[in-house]
Design a protein that fits this description.
77 residues; mainly alpha; extended
Length: 77
Amino acid sequence: MLITVDTVAAEAMQLPEDQRMTLAHRLIASVEPHPDPAVEAAWDHEIRERIRRYDGGKSTTIAASQVFKELDQRIAR
């Protein structure tokens, strides 16, 4: 028996929301590339450095609402 994407999707839509979210996460994870340990280490270092600078008063933050407002304005151009 051939199962189509439409059939699977229709059946998945009958699941409770939390189970649909779990299914969506599993599907996305199944096609994501495995993270490169060097890239993960670099991001870890960058995150720690940003926290250190913020805690030391050497950087500031921008409210998420302001960031999204500016992005919306750029996209609207």
